[in-house]
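User: Can you recover a sequence for this backbone? Please restate the input before giving your answer.

Assistant: Of course. Working from this structure:
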């Protein structure tokens, strides 16, 4: 069986460090590994509209931002097909058929959707489209027969829902769809990177993000203002490393060579943590170290972004081509789905012949 990746992002804002460690960096590595037959990267604008129906301008403007973030992180359109979800009508049709295979109570149990409903104050007025977006996500994944979906931990319930839909579809209509596997980050700090405010998740909607396209000065300010251990007031106080955002970020981003380069007094992260726990290590020193690491990681991304920003029409053209390619693949899967469901009436000569026979009797 072919190895195929499908993943993507909602164009609700520029991409941030959570996306980077949760999914984006991995995608680039997988792309460059050459182990996959095909890679599809989707800008999920239709999904973004499910909770932004009154603000299509925001979604429209962020499509190019997300595309620039992709290119500047090293996604390469000659190896990965980058496309825009809403331009592929086949995905909507698949969603409509899959809706019949999922119950309302099953959707209500989805923990990610539950917490997102809370976050958006949707409790009494959930848009139907938002409520059903896990089904639409199943369409996106299955339309490309994806075997592998590299995403952050919050997407686990969506992949499970997709697998259930695939099993149900295949058992009712015959083997047609492919069951995908989730691919989570290996590093546990990257599963769900917290926001700079210490909240559970860095998220565009919560305004606690460090963006890939932030200026060096923005990044520095955000790092210096980061949530740490509220009990660690004086330098000599013992400090907590668990739940301390600066240390979580160091878990996610620091590598041994960063110590050699920026903080040679310490052999590595364990020694730094130990000093902080003991007391006598100030937040400012740790934050400066984190800032140096992030600047080193982001500088090449910023430089590449500047180059791509010089040819915006070229970026749209890349998206147009990618969307065309993706559409051909989705159309093929939809044809197979219709045929499995036996709703391909006009292509089904056997159906027409047998009906003719029935009426001639
Ligand atoms: P929104 O608030 O609009 O939902 P978001 O910041 O949650 O935006 P998405 O577009 O929903 O971003 O997520 C895109 C991908 O990035 C998903 O694979 C998701 O798991 C991953 N991701 C998002 N935020 C984080 C995070 N803080 N840590 C790790 N992965 C993340
Ligand atoms: Mg999200």
């Amino acid at each position: 069986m072919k190895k195929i990746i499908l993943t993507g992002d909602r164009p609700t804002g520029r991409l941030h460090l959570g996306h980077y460690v949760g999914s984006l960096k991995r995608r680039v590595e997988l792309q460059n590994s050459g182990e996959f037959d095909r890679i599809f990267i989707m800008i999920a604008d239709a999904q973004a509209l499910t909770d932004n129906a009154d603000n299509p301008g925001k979604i429209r403007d962020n499509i190019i931002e997300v595309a620039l973030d992709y290119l500047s992180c090293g996604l390469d359109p000659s190896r990965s097909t980058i496309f825009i979800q809403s331009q592929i009508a086949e995905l909507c049709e698949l969603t409509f058929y899959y809706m019949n295979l999922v119950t309302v109570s099953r959707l209500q149990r989805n923990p990610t959707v539950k917490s997102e409903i809370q976050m958006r104050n949707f409790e009494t007025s959930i848009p139907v489209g938002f409520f059903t977006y896990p089904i639409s996500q199943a369409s996106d994944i299955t339309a490309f027969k994806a075997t592998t979906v590299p995403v952050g931990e919050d997407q686990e319930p969506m992949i499970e829902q997709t697998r259930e839909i695939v099993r149900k579809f295949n058992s009712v209509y015959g083997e047609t769809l492919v069951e995908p596997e989730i691919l989570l980050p290996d590093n546990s700090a990257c599963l769900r990177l917290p926001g700079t405010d210490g909240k559970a998740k860095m998220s565009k909607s919560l305004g606690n993000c460090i963006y890939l396209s932030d200026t060096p000065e923005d990044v520095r300010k955000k790092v210096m203002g980061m949530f740490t251990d509220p009990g660690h007031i004086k330098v000599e106080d013992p400090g907590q490393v668990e739940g301390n955002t600066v240390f979580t970020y160091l878990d996610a981003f620091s590598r041994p060579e960063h110590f050699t380069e920026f903080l040679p007094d310490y052999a590595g992260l364990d020694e730094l943590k130990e000093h902080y726990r003991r007391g006598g290590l100030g937040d400012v020193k740790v934050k400066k170290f984190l800032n140096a690491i992030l600047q080193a990681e982001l500088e090449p991304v910023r430089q590449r972004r500047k180059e791509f920003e010089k040819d915006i029409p070229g970026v749209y053209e890349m998206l147009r081509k990618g969307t065309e390619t993706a559409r051909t693949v989705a159309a093929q899967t939809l044809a197979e789905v219709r045929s499995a469901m036996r709703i391909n009436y006009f292509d089904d000569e056997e159906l027409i012949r047998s009906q003719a026979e029935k009426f001639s009797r």
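That completes the design. The domain at 4-192+312-353 is CATH 3.40.50.620 (Rossmann fold).
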